[in-house]
Design brief:
homodimer; 396 residues; alpha/beta; Aspartate Aminotransferase, domain 1; Aspartate Aminotransferase, domain 2; 2 domains; 7-stranded mixed β-sheet; 4-stranded antiparallel β-sheet; 39% helix; globular
Chain lengths: 396, 396
């Protein structure tokens, strides 16, 4: 139950809304958001503002008067740019009819869920997990069923039998986030095939969250994707976002890739939630796709260096346990002897000025861990590593 | 059932999503959106782009790098500007804690509904109505119960006994849009008191959509409002939008005014739907509130002239029936002998190049009517009036 519910007596709110949990990431962020000298590694965003080659076309379109209602599916040039992007990076044949533009990756998830699952339905997801997926389903009256990934310092692993055992007659979808926020786990091509096989046999949708595909530290230029193995008739909704690749967290623009037959349904869901995405912002998003490959590559390379800096610093303490992430831009680590991650995250902010997201924010499966975002300035990461080393040594 | 559902066999969509009706406004708009020489009076927006005193601060903030995640409730300076706006125009004491910024007025409605009603719940609304309110509730699994306004050429009227008779034990809220889109009906202060009395006695929320308050053609400077009569403990959620007053339809920014105790719940609903509104857009919204009173007054004065132009033209035909709107910026009129408004709206586009929204888009209660937006260039309205006069005369 929401801790604020006490003040809500007499207001007769809908139970699922009243009881929606506050984000634990937001809780610690609010605790110290404006502290001087803070190194904020808690939130899932980089430290660079949107580059001007993206923001300028949007600003020009805004000043130029592209301020009217627009296509519910998104403007055609943006959807054509999405198709080019997927052909370039994923080698698939695709066209503008495969995409619908959404008001953030979060809204992409909300709309995908609205399309396939509602009150009384279940969806299975892998935990620890970014908390907004289960929360969005539960606000809609559905039930989010976690399947725990197994932790070892050699890597997180998914037990496929456990995944299938979580499927019930009420299950409508498997929500698969790979590479994973917060763990850095990524499904191999073989694992993706096994998941797809379960979905086919059990008549389930897959909601695929592959937004970190290009933040990839393994073989090849990106993480394995359901796009590598799916057939046209498979029921997969790909939810995605401009936020991470192109430093556009504050823009709130994303997209869904879906079977074209679903577009009229998804357009209605857009119409009855936010009624479209600002056209002038879509001009910037198009510039990101068409001109942003070098920008993304530089940031992925920097993140790989950041990953080395923070893992080296934490390994040297002898008391931090983690699996080296395969993708995304988070280090998810435990500290020996620490069990209450929310209290510790606040203490770490107070004593070191380093902002970490507490593992409990990613579900009970994440308790005892901390999430550190390493998509940041490398000097700042080195400084954060030093401070965390001192903190861990002093708290022995 | 959605006419597109036939192509969806085998996709196992959620029923409420699959069956959501397409907007009838969008249908005729798509039918002829790019026709040359069209006078588009079908959509609920004016013909002016956002003025530069609003768009420039937003563009500057975008280029200046305000492109990170921001407050889920909205930035404090914008909420302070909202409080000043309501003090100035509605004479109430209020502060920034009374407001939450949303990704459009549509999202304000969606979130207000999520807070109070869901699967199996009912909400009562007045019809004919803008279709997105009932559709948003039904997509969420609720039931929207229309109460028909009575038409006469002296004005639309609300039968309060009929309103109360529509309330059942499952009713959670009354959705009251005044001044009304599409009818132009507005509740008097006495009617608002009677509605509030029903809500108090029957333990209901009121979701108040007063976005057209300042587009008002009666006594005083604005329409009567629940703000004039409510007590602090009343359960009223005011949904609102920057779209209409400040020519910002394409921005997708709105707000909810709600009891402050609800803010943590509403912030969670924002977090789990779109996770906030771009901070750079909020800078423009603040400029609209603080510097936009003259702009709004000029547009309201122009709309009043536009209203005279279109009513004079249609009255001269002797075959158009309508009540002069008290507020908003739509003329909702019937043509003697015309019963199928969708077919006729398409024929009118084809033969006259004037785009009207078909009354059926506003529910069966609107069949036989057409909605004409008169918040447009006056010369264009005069031309549209001439063309409609000729069409009506020729189709006698």
């Amino acid at each position: 139950m929401n801790e604020n519910a006490a003040g809500l007596d007499g207001f007769a709110l809908r139970r699922e809304a009243r009881d929606a949990p506050a984000s634990g990431i937001v809780e610690v962020f609010q605790y110290a958001r404006d502290r001087a000298g803070l190194i904020p590694l808690w939130v899932g965003e980089g430290d660079q503002p949107t580059p001007e080659f993206i923001s300028r076309p949007a600003a020009d379109a805004l000043i130029g008067g592209e301020t009217f209602y627009t296509w519910q599916q998104g403007i055609p040039p943006l959807r054509e740019a999405l198709a080019r992007y997927f052909t370039r990076h994923f080698g698939i044949e695709t066209g503008p009819h495969d995409y619908i533009v959404t008001g953030s990756g979060m809204q992409a998830i909300q709309l995908a869920l609205q399309a396939v699952a509602g009150a009384g339905d279940e969806c299975v997801y892998l935990a620890p997990a970014w908390p907004n997926f289960p929360a969005a389903l539960e606000v809609a009256g559905g039930k989010a069923v976690p399947v725990e990934l197994d932790f070892s310092e050699n890597g997180w692993t998914l037990d496929l039998e456990r995944l299938e055992a979580a499927v019930t007659p009420r299950t409508r979808a498997l929500f698969i986030n790979t590479p994973s926020n917060p763990t850095g786990w990524a499904a191999t091509r073989e694992t993706l095939s096994a998941i797809l096989d379960i979905a086919r046999r059990r008549d389930l949708w897959i909601v695929a969250d592959e937004i970190y595909s290009l933040f990839w530290y393994g073989e090849g230029s990106r993480a394995p994707s359901f796009l590598d193995i799916q057939s046209p008739q498979d029921r997969i909704l790909y939810v995605n976002s401009f936020s991470k690749n192109w430093a556009m967290t504050g823009w709130r623009v994303g997209w869904i890739k879906a079977p074209p037959a679903l577009m009229p349904v998804l357009e209605n869901l857009v119409q009855y939630s936010t009624s479209g995405v600002p056209q002038f912002l879509q001009r910037g998003a198009q510039a990101a796709l068409d001109g942003g490959d070098d920008f993304v590559a530089e940031h992925v390379a920097r993140a790989a260096e950041g990953l080395d800096i923070v893992t080296t610093a934490l390994r040297a303490t002898g008391r931090a346990r983690f699996a080296r992430p395969q993708g995304a831009f988070y280090l998810f680590f435990a500290i020996d002897g620490v069990t209450d991650s929310m209290a510790s995250a606040k203490r770490i902010v107070d004593e070191t000025g380093v902002g970490l997201a507490p593992g409990i924010a990613f579900g009970p499966e994440g308790e005892g861990f901390f999430r550190l975002c390493f998509n940041r300035d490398l000097g700042q990461l080195a400084e954060a590593g030093d401070r965390l080393q001192r903190y861990i040594a002093a708290s022995d």
